[in-house]
Amino acid sequence: MFLLSLTYLVPLEEIEPLMAPHMMWVDTHYQTGTLLLSGRKVPRTGGVLLARAESREAIEAIVAADPFTQAGAVRYDIIEFTPTRIAPGAGEAWLD
Predict the structure, then answer these.
(1) Euclidean distance between the first and final Cα of the chain, in Å?
(2) What is the 3-state secondary structure (H, E, C) of the chain?
(3) Residues 8-62: pLDDT tens digits?
(4) Under a CB-based contact definition with an 8 Å cutoff, are residues 71 and 3 in contact?
(5) Which of 5, 25, 27, 67 could form a disulfide linkage to 77, CB 3.0–4.6 angstroms apart?
(6) Cα-based angle 63, 52, 24 (whole degrees, multiple of 5)
């Protein structure tokens, strides 16, 4: 499992034109089951995604294909972890 924290490197005015292609990228990875959760940081300085993949290299390749990354507009911090507990009712599928 991977926690992906992205930080904007450019002003929001430069992020906005990239948002539609980024969201298409996000939608693709929800459809493949790679992304489990996503959202904006508060305050709006970037975003956070929860993802799963077979390896760090696979996640790095996925991140490299993000239009935000390709435009040099964000920095991704990738944190790999192994979930061992989950709140009751939160959805056991997260632990596979």
Answers:
(1) 9
(2) CEEEEEEECCCHHHHHHHHHHHHHHHHHHHHCCCEEEEEECCCCCEEEEEECCCCHHHHHHHHHCCHHHHCCCEEEEEEECCCCCCCCCCCHHHHC
(3) 999 999 999 999 999 999 999 999 999 999 999 999 999 999 999 999 999 999 9
(4) no
(5) 5
(6) 45
Amino acid identity of residue 2, one-letter, is: F
The pTM for the full model equals 0.89
Q: Which residues neighbour 77 within 8 Å (Cβ) at sequence distance 6 or greater? A: 4, 5, 6, 7
Quote the distance between the C-alpha of residue 8 and its chain's center: 13
